[in-house]
Amino acid sequence: MTQTRAEVPLTITGGRKRSVAGLTMNGLLVRLALYLFLSFVCLILLFPNIWMISTSLKDSPQIFAYPPELIPAPFLWSNYLVAIQKFPFFLYLRNTLIVTGLATFGTVLSASLVAFGFARRRFPEREVLFGVLLSTMMLPSIVTLIPTFVLFTRLGWVNTFLPLTVPAFFGGGAFYIFLLRQFYLTLPYDYDEAAYIDGASSLRVWWEIILPFSKAPLAVITVFTVLSNWNDFMGPLIYMNKPHMRTLALGLQFFRDQRYTQWNYLMAASTLTLIPVLILFFAAQRYFMEGILLTGLSGR
Amino acid sequence: MTKRLSRREFMRNAGLAGTGLALAACAPVAQDGAMDDGSMMAEKQTAYIFDYDPTGTDAWVEADQLFIEYFTEKYPDYEIIREQAPWAGFTEKLLTSIAGGSEYDVIYGYWQWLPLFIENNVIGPLDDLIDADTEISADDFFDYAKETIEGETYGLAWFISGWLHWYNLSAVNEAGATTPKEMNENGDWDYDAWYQFAKEYTSEQDGVPIYGYEMGSGRSVSVYVMLAWAWGTEQWNDDFSASIMDNEENVALWKWIQQFYVEGLTPLPGSSTTEQPISYTNGRSMATMAGQWYTRTIVQDGAPDLFDIGMVPFPTGPSGQYSVAALNSFYFSSSPGNVDPAWAWYKERSFSEAAASIYAKIGGGRFPSIKRVAPATVYEWEDTEVYEAIRPILRTYRTSPKESEWINTYWNVAWDEMVLGTRPVEEILGQLAEESTALVNS
Amino acid sequence: MALQTKHRPGPLARKEAWEGRLYILPWLAGFLIFTIGPMAASIYFSFTKYSVLSGADWLGLDNYTKLFGGDRLFGLTLYNTFYFVILSVPLNLFAAFLVALLLSVQVRGINLYRTLYYLPVITPAVASALTWGMLFSGDFGLVNAVLQALGLPTFNWLFNPKITKLVFVIMGLWGIGGSAIIFLAGLQNVPRVLYEAAGIDGANLWHRFRHITVPMMTPLIFFNLVLGIIGTFQVFTGAYIITAGGPANSTLFYVLYLYNNAFRFFKMGYASALAWVLFVIILVFTVIQLRMARLWVFYEAER
Fold this sequence. Notes:
With about 300 residues, chain A is mainly α.
């Protein structure tokens, strides 16, 4: 099959035909209906977040007011200031960034290599090992929590960031490998074949053909990895004994105890915790839309 | 061919050996000095404490800070190493640490765990330590404030909270009625008066129900037993060999509770959630039951600005008047590394007057297990008379060895069925008793 | 399309095989170091009485015989979980695909919509849990308010054993952003030239969707289906935070029961037995899917 570099229309500027995923968007009415529908679903999906932000700006009595009030009165922006002073927010942010950064780098790098092996190289044990890979997702982690902790204790890694980062460099988990493998399997084979005939090594094929073609899936797993490490509660909880090594997900627990939750501060801190991931997502999403079509095959 | 076979065999053996090794690496770490990094500081005697995070209010954090300062100053030779976990994840953290070989001299306890901790030799009795101590004796403590199993004391509560009713005093005054507190003083505060109160004050405002009483906490067994004692029964027989949940008194009590739900005197579960507004504190129910700790919630939710707070002990039932002692204790290791610093910490934290005054700031009229320290109040609307009235009628909830499993697996379900009214109470309790007896004998 | 080159013998194939093994080595090493030990340990624990507070005592098959023989809750939690899986997996898959199609349309401002649709996935569970009460509570919930305004009957959503599972299915829809993003990324890999060719042939919108988009997306539909089943069988967080399994055990899902055994009742041995039974169940479903995949999943790179 031959591949052409497609011209992709990016914005609506006139009556030009838009053709993405085979759907054509014509006319003002269609677009208007689309916006309305998108916004309607959006509103429903965003209800929890709207409420979360509203709560983060209220004073305590208003949180419990009846009937529930959506608009804070007054707007207590100071809640955010108070929230980050109640625990060492910036220290925990730093720790979270270290753990998330290392784990994400490890996962994206190693998962893309491993997925390349599973998708584009043939070897006799491939199917069996792939089955083993999938099976690691099928056992609830609750029952491996204790032995895994014991293992890291024996390695002397407790109270370090190692248990939260080193495993990421070993494939980063079945989910990411499986996802990338599925993407790699959708890539046409012609280019690697041609490259191999040209005498290219497989590592070069991975670097120069597979990776450039895979910006979208790599962006997706980057976002997923960041998110799962950013919000991970159990890992930092059990491996970090020293308060100064805690992460933001643990910090959020600061606003709750046995009977009592400071909802406004909790929501303020949650909102702040969420923002970096949101920004990352917004920045990464231009790559989501970057399939082979945009990349083309420059330089070959 | 032979070469291939042998290689495969080699791979298999290597795989088996590898798996065996990997498995061995995960076996729980034997508890032998896994924490000996402390020996580096040879001059100081170290105690290891497992505690919860001082979270929630600023007062709590401050108190914890003050206590550490107080202790460090008083015992310069002792070093305290605390590992802390937030409430969410407390068990996970504790269990993984113990499996990893950590030994703690003092562990913050939870009454549902007590039998298991003893059974597995994690904690030991305090009686010898109390006897050997020259500053205190066993008689200094309220009996109900001791976490005791088979005659041995495993915990001396650092905070005790009794349960009481909180009612909307403004509403009662507006109605020109006798307050529950006055009824209590006149000897008229009984279960019928409670029910009448709920009925009296259940109303509707702009199409929205105002409930006379918020019954939700009754689902908690440790609260339920308080009612059951007043009705002359409890949930187990004397030696925990059988459930008596299907006896006459329990059936009558459940039916009494059920009418609150059936008649709409109390909100159904799910009509609001714990975080959400149907509560005493925003005036949507006229009364509720809670421990003394509830003062913090009342203040947080701003209730004192909306109406006057009324407090009264639980009513008198057919067999008398009770309040349940909610105990928060620390437990002591069965094989402490350094007894002196650990016991010093235990004593100071659990029942010294200094600690009591420091932690009093958290609020809630609580008091430690030692008799000479009085309930502390923080807010002007707190009724010290009621606190003093509750003190002599406190009792401790007796814990069966399988309490946690029983509550989560059987009790909660039966309670939900009672509230939903899917089956007659006799039938629900019959099944509950049968399954509970099977559980404790399994 | 590439040549059919199956079973190519010779040094090239052997080189390729060794390269393949080398590429997957990071995962294999990680599996042997970090994963297989804990998994094996949990198998061992499943044959023991293990409170974690002290060592494990060998029980033989007792945990398993109790599980299959006398544990009423085992059956009930399986029922709850299957109920949830059967409704939730297809619904989420369908909704996620639909959302991805919607979000793939190139109109101004679509970037913002994509971010907003993903926002619920990023939101910490504790924050969204607060809101479910606002939506579904019986007395003042938004859902009931809307139903009432439309003259429809209202429910006590979170305390009616007949509908609580459905509420969880509905709540699950808030999390489709993850699968939708995967589909969205996949849609970009559908070669445009196919559509253009089809356009010349005069195929209409539906035909192009049915005969080009869907087949090209099957690897990712397969991925989301497999992962959906694996993940949904292990549904836990919502029931743990919002209903704690109630009312009357109607949301006591399998893994929540397993968690209770492990960390509430201190029965790690029994929890491990439960976990391995679930492992086998999920394995069976996954194997069936892998087999069926040959019938409907289309790989560009298959050779």
